[in-house]
Amino acid sequence: MQYKHNSSDSFTRCSFCGREIARDKMILLDEQDQKTVLHMTCKQCNTATLVFIYNNNAGGSMGMGIATDMDHLEVVSKLGESPVSTDEVISVHKLLSNYKGNSVDFIKKV
Predict the structure, then answer these.
(1) pLDDT tens profile 30-65
(2) CA–CA separation, 29 vs 72, rounded Å?
(3) Domain-located, residue 91
(4) Using an 8 Å Cβ cutoff, are 49 and 67 in contact?
(5) Range of the domain at 47
(6) In this structure, are residues 12 and 39 in contact, taking their beta carbons and an 8 Å threshold?
(7) Is residue 70 part of a domain?
(8) Is 0.85 surpassed by the pTM of this model?
(9) What is the CATH classification number for the domain harbouring 45?
């Protein structure tokens, strides 16, 4: 599988500096049905970005790029994990709603 680069495609720009990402710095991580996940690294500023693209039935695309500190192998290992459950979200919400302090201290306690 190879991502087809289109110079007008806004998904191929660095999420930090906005420069065009070189083709050799784009790694296709996952492609299913109408969803594509790419890991890209900017040669200019060295920012790594995860790009999630969804192609709809009308021929349009929408996507989102997120800067990350993970390399492509770390991302691939996370793609197969189970999503966060509703119960887990509620548990964390309850824990946080009663916490009085800053986030650094909270993380140290957990």
Answers:
(1) 998 888 999 999 999 999 999 888 888 787 788 888
(2) 7
(3) no
(4) yes
(5) 10-82
(6) no
(7) yes
(8) no
(9) 3.10.450
